[in-house]
Amino acid sequence: MFANPLKIAALAVLLSPISALAQDGSLYEPAPDPSMSYVRVIDPGTENVAVGSKRLDDVADGISPYVGVVAGDVPVITDAVDMTLTVEAATYYTVLVSDDGATQIITDAITNSPAKADLAFYNLSDLGSADLFVPRADAMAVEGVVPTNAASVALNAPLELDFEVREGKAVMATVETVSLKRKSGVSIVVTGSAGSYEAISIDNSYIY
């Protein structure tokens, strides 16, 4: 599910940076193999994740880095999940794991744009339709994300923003001072149930 293009255009205009070059570095890491794919896990109930041959321990907040893999069948293991994911070339995947162990495979829209930052919003709560609102722009970044699902958008960068997780007009959780950088990405995850919710943000990271 993706945000309304007209709203994204309005958001981009409102948030267009004025002095980007002064805040953003001009050098980037060498580009990886363009055919490589990436798989990560978001499972707030686990600290241990294995993707392919990589085992990751003490995973903060249950959000693993993206692990570089070749196309084919890739084993994915957490404390609650033991599965095999069929991976296509040059594709980004997130394995979402809910509290009850249910999984959803998300194909992430990663652009790696030299002028924008990728923002992904994951709903691991019981909110029936979660929106990600930007108070500074008085606009939605993404909206209508159902449980165990996600939406993505690319925003002008660099800049720092606060976000509100909303259901309708009600603010259910907030994330403050999220730094958006060019050619990189940030993920926001909302969890909780029965009126108690928490949202966290994490910079996307990679293991090759």
TrEMBL record:
This is Alginate biosynthesis protein AlgF. It comes from the Bacteria. One of its GO terms (cellular component) is periplasmic space. It comes from Litoreibacter roseus. It is found in: Periplasm. Belongs to the AlgF family. Keywords: Alginate biosynthesis, Periplasm, Signal. Pfam families: AlgF. InterPro entries: AlgF. Pathway: Glycan biosynthesis; alginate biosynthesis. Residues 1-22 form the signal peptide. GO terms for biological process: alginic acid biosynthetic process.
